[in-house]
Amino acid sequence: MSAPKSIFAPETQPVSTQATHRGRRSKREATAYHEAGHVLAAWTFRIEIKSATIEPGVSFLGQVQHRNLPRRAYENAELGMLSPKQQVDFEHFVIVSFAGLVAETKYRGRRNRVTAGDDYNFITERAMTLIPWERSRNAWLAYCEAAAQDMIEASWPCIEAVAAALLHQGTLTADEISTIMLDDAVRKATFARFRQRHEEEQERAKAALRADVTKEVRTVGRG
User: Fold this and answer.
1) Whether residue 83 sits in one domain with residue 102
2) Comparing 17-21, 41-45, 66-70, 170-174, which segment has the lowest mean pLDDT?
3) What is the pLDDT of residues 94-139, one digit of tens each?
4) Spacing of C-alpha 102 from chain mean position
5) Domain tally for the chain?
6) Which one, 91, 150, 175, 181, has least CB within 10 Å?
7) pTM for the full model?
8) Between vectors from CA 148 to CA 89 and to CA 183, what angle results, nearest 5°?
């Protein structure tokens, strides 16, 4: 297994090569952040990860190999007989799917229409298997996407570390991913980011509550 310093080393190329392949490198970087999003969510939900790569294949630019839902879960979903644990597992896997799209969108500053379509088709198929009613399904999908967004925002240092390693090596094994996720510097940076985001959310919630109370007081006063 490569040493941590090698895993975190940034991608370096001659200046002329960087200029010539700017568009290609940009797509490769976006793919690295996309796959890093999947890695973070799978790791968070303790879904076994086998590998992650940004080396393109016949039908993909990158992919994360991880444990999938068992066939029995899909069969039970179609019969409306999911256990509580299977329902939670479905939710986790959908959030994992959203996380790649969310991470890439944050990195690029805009949504990738091509990968967005592929991801949403995959997510929608899973959701339709689980929830047959459109209104409930759409609300559940909105929640799963929001959960992925909060996860990515709060853990961005992890995303950057995994993406940098993918850009440097192309492919990461399960052990190398564990090395990154358990690295002290990455964990400290992620905790600091999480605490900052948590404090910001608390301040926004307090401000919204104060605004609601003030509005209510004014309404009562006019009455």
Assistant:
1) yes
2) 17-21
3) 999 999 999 999 998 888 766 667 778 888 888 888 888 899 999 9
4) 6
5) 2
6) 175
7) 0.78
8) 90
The pLDDT, as a whole number, for residue 223 is 56
Domain containing 40 equals 12-182
Question: For tokens 């209510």, what's the residue?
Answer: 216
DSSP string, 134-194: HHHHHHHHHHHHHHHHHHHHHTHHHHHHHHHHHHHHSEEEHHHHHHHHT-HHHHHHHHHHH
| CATH classification of the domain holding 118 | 1.20.58.760
Residue 52 lies in a domain: yes
Residues 143 and 212 in one domain: no
Q: Are residues 175 and 215 in the same domain?
A: no
Q: What span, in angstroms and rounded, lies between the C-alpha atoms of 104 and 118?
A: 14
In a shared domain, residues 67 and 164: yes
Q: Report the C-alpha gap between 200 and 32 in whole angstroms.
A: 28
- pLDDT at 20 exceeding the cut of 90: no
Give 66-88 pLDDT, tens digit per residue. 988 888 887 888 788 888 888 89
